[in-house]
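Session log. Operator J.P. requested a structure for one protein chain; no other inputs attached. Running the standard single-chain path with C-alpha cell output.
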Amino acid sequence: MTNNHFTKILTIAATVLTMTTGAVQATADATASSNDVVKTVSDATAATGHSKAAAITSLAHMSFGFKTGANMTTPATYRWASKTITYKINDKSTYYKQVWNSAVKHWNATKVVKLVPVQAGKTANITLASANSDTTKTSGDIVGMTFSSYHTTQKMGNLNVMAGATSYVYKNIANKMHYSQLDREHVAEHELGHALGLEHADTKKSVMYYANRSSAITSTDVKGLKAAYQGQ
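Structure written below.
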C-alpha cells in the first residue's frame, strides 16, 4: 500500500466521523507503518431513562457496532501498547476539568494503568473534553461519545493496539437530563473506560453499562481492565 493510499484512508475515516457528529471531529494517529491501517470506531453512551432498544438504534447510527460482555467481567476489544498512557484535558471549563480529573483519578486508583498528563509539545494518547451535541445529527439523548483508533496489524494477545482516542461529555444533554456533577463524573469514567479499550458491560453494577449513571468503577470493570493489560 502506498503512503498516499494510506493517508487517503485516514482522511476518509476522519471525514465520515465529522459528518456523523457535527462539530465533534475525530483524530487518528497516522504514525503506523505503511502496511498497517489505522481504523476509527466510536462508542456512544445513552442518557439514563431511555430504553435499551432506543439506545441500540442510536448506537447503530453513530458507531460500527454495539457489543456487550459477560456479566461479571467488562470486555475489552483494544488496549494501549503500554500501561502508562498520556492524556490531555482540552477544555476551558474549570467545572469539566474537575469532572475529567476525577475520572482520571479513579481509573488510576485501580492500579492497572497509569494515566499521566502529556508533556508540553507532545501528542497525548487520549484527549478529554466537553462539547455540545448536535441533536439534529444524532438519534436519542447521547450524553457521551468516544472516538478510538487502532492498528489493524498490531496486537497484544488478542487485542488490537490503540493509536488514539478522544472522549467527550455532552454538556447540553447532561444539562437536559439534570445530571449532577457526580453523574457527569460517572459519564466521564465511562468514556475514559472506552478510551482505555473497554466495551459495554451487561451488568448495571459497572461504570461501563450502556446507560447507568448511578455506578462508578466497580470490580467488574477492574477485572476487565486487568484481563486486557495483564502481562505487560
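Operator note: The domain at 3-229 is CATH 3.40.390.10 (Collagenase (Catalytic Domain)).
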